[in-house]
Amino acid sequence: DVKVTQSSRYLVKRTGEKVFLECVQDMDHENMFWYRQDPGLGLRLIYFSYDVKMKEKGDIPEGYSVSREKKERFSLILESASTNQTSMYLCASSQGAAIQPQHFGDGTRLSIL
Amino acid sequence: SQQGEEDPQALSIQEGENATMNCSYKTSINNLQWYRQNSGRGLVHLILIRSNEREKHSGRLRVTLDTSKKSSSLLITASRAADTASYFCATDSNDYKLSFGAGTTVTVRA
């Protein structure tokens, strides 16, 4: 069965810290995505990657960066965490074109104090 | 940018009733997908409808698509407590990305 694993379910960090969120998929998928989910706003795409070492900005990339050194792993980095980055972060993967379903992890609820 | 908008934002129904939610979008699409999210979990893909299809069924789910009105509906028949969740539509208009709406929260009362 398809599995996307996010390293932490809950994370509390301080303003100004560098924060790493990790995501691993076991399906050999080409595409991986990072979203943030906020009440009333749905899912907003931060970054995605369609191949190893490739990345593209989504709709809200400011304050974030990503790393994809291996096909199965996609990391989201908050360079200098701020309180407005408190949110639920969801990782997803898919194979091929956008018609293919995305498979999601269970999310990381990140609080920045 | 967000493409889809679900309506209503929230829906409360009795077990056994049908639940209908709608999704409207702004620009032309290739396909439209519906996802479910249970509380505290990630999204799970439910069904896909292509732009040249008008209706699709999967078990108790029925999806319609009207490209002239840029809208889709998801009907869940004979609802169960386990259908309590948030439901999202997602559209794709380019190669890799999906654009999600804000979701409809469905509560099924026993």
Write up this protein:
The complex is a heterodimer of chains A (113) and B (110). Chain A is 0% helix and 53% strand. With 113 residues, chain A is mainly β. Chain B is globular and about 40 Å long. In chain B, strand 7 and strand 8 (71-76) form a beta hairpin. Helix content of chain B is 0%, strand content 55%. Chain B has 110 residues and is mostly beta strands. Classes of the chains: A mainly beta (113), B mainly beta (110).
Summarize the structure.
The complex is a heterodimer of chains A (113) and B (110). With 113 residues, chain A is mainly beta.
Major interchain interface with per-chain residue totals:
A-B, 28 and 28 residues
Helix/sheet category of chain B: mainly beta
- State the shape of chain A: globular
Report the mean per-residue pLDDT of chain A as an integer. 94
Would you spell out the secondary-structure blueprint of this structure?
The complex is a heterodimer of chains A (113) and B (110).
Chain A: E1 4-6, E2 10-13, E3 19-25, E4 31-38, E5 42-49, E6 56-57, E7 64-70, E8 73-78, E9 87-94, E10 103-104, E11 108-112
Parallel strand pairs in A: 2-11
Antiparallel strand pairs in A: 1-3, 3-8, 4-5, 4-9, 5-6, 7-8, 9-10, 9-11
Chain B: E1 5-7, E2 10-14, E3 19-24, E4 31-37, E5 43-50, E6 55-58, E7 61-66, E8 71-76, E9 85-92, E10 99-100, E11 104-109
Parallel strand pairs in B: 2-11
Antiparallel strand pairs in B: 1-3, 3-8, 4-5, 4-9, 6-7, 7-8, 9-10, 9-11
Structure characteristics:
heterodimer, A: 113 residues, mainly beta, seven-stranded mixed β-sheet, four-stranded antiparallel β-sheet, 11 strands, 0% helix, globular, B: 110 residues, six-stranded mixed β-sheet, five-stranded antiparallel β-sheet, 55% strand
